[in-house]
Amino acid sequence: MIQKGIEETPLFREYEPLLSAMGITLVDIDELIRGNSVLVTIVIMAKEEEVNVDHCAKVYRLVYPRMELTLGDRDLQLEVTTPGLQRTIKDFYEFSLFTGRRVRVYDTSKPAWVSGIIKACDDHALTLDEVYIEDGKEMIATMVVELASIQKAKLDYRWEDNSHGN
Predict the structure, then answer these.
(1) CA dist 135 → 37, 54, 64, 89, 114 (Å)
(2) What is the pTM assigned to this prediction?
(3) Same fold, 6-81 and 93-155
(4) Class of 6-81 per CATH?
């Protein structure tokens, strides 16, 4: 189920301003504590370009020493990664980050998987363009999906066929 509220978590509030100052958008930050070990996973995007390994390394070098200080004797494992091509969306906040990208959502009001390009997102609804409803095999120019009716969502990368019969 998609959550709401990642922006209010302590880790997000601490690291988002630091990364933002570096030109990095914090997509997700998750902490898993197992005994004396802590695994932190950070998902990032670059604001002005495609995110690459250099961005991940830069974030790692900034965040690791800071987290290590706060954890004391615990063992820290830090993973910094990109959203990937087919990221499962965990928080409604992510829809605003992926504006202009294709997403696949399970709309319980249909019920069907709906694929479309994110045009806009607010606190109540997601507006999609070039919409394809998978069960009905139909195409719609624009569709508004209420956030409350979205059960699952993920980025939907599609290889575009540019050959046009050539």
Answers:
(1) 44, 41, 45, 21, 9
(2) 0.85
(3) no
(4) alpha beta
- Predicted local distance difference test score (pLDDT) of residue 164: 39
CATH class of 93-155: mainly beta
**Per-residue buried b or exposed e for 19-29, using 16+ beta carbons within 10 Å of the residue's own CB:** beeeebbbbbb
Per-residue tokens: 81: 């990664």
Distance CA 103, CA 84 (A): 13
Axis-axis angle for helices 10-21, 53-71 (nearest 10):
140
Query: Taking a C-beta distance cutoff of 8 angstroms, is the pair 89, 52 a contact?
Result: no
Q: Could you read off the pLDDT of 60-96 as tens digits, one per residue?
A: 999 999 999 988 888 999 999 999 989 999 999 999 9
130: left (phi over 0), alpha (psi -120 to 50) or beta: left
Could you tell me which residues are beta bridge partners of residue 143? Answer: 128
All structural domains of the chain with their residue ranges: 6-81, 93-155
